[in-house]
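Reopening this one. Same input as before:
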Amino acid sequence: MCADFAIHDKGDGNPHVHILLTTRKVDESGFTKKERAWNDKALLIEWRKLWAEWCNHKLYFVSDERIDHRSYAARGIDKLPQKHLEAAACAIEKKGYRTDKGGYNRRVILENTNAEIDKLNFELSALNTEKLSLKKEIIESELDCPLSKIFSIEVDKI
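Same output, byte for byte:
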C-alpha cells in the first residue's frame, strides 16, 4: 500500500495529519487493480487497535490519559457519541460562531450530563437508603428491641 501524508501544525491547537492511501496494487508498471481486501472493516478495526496501542505506549511516559479505538457501545458505555467537527466547523466555533454540528454536540453533552446526574442521583438514593437501614440497625441494637415494637406500644389513658 502506498501512503501520502501531510502534517499540519499551525500552532492553533489543532495539529493533525492528512493521510491519503491508495487501494490499488503497485508493481513495476505502476498502479494496477484495486485491492478490495483493504476495505475490510475487521482490518480497519485492527489498524485502529494498533494505533491506540502505539499512542498509549507513548502516552504512558508523559500522561495518565489513554485512548481507546472502540466505540462507546463496544466498551459498554451508555453515552451518546458526538459528531466530529471538521476543520471548517472547528474554526467557525473557535471564532465564537455556532455551527449545526457544534450545536448537535452541545445537545449531546447536555444529554450525557443529564444521564450522568440521573445515575449519580440513583446511587445517592441507594446510599441514603443503606444509611437509614444502618441507623435503624444501630438504634435497635442499642435499645435491644426492634423499633416496630417501640412504636406499636399504646399509651394508657389517664
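So the earlier flakiness isn't reproducible anymore. For the record, The first strand starts at residue 3 and ends at 8.
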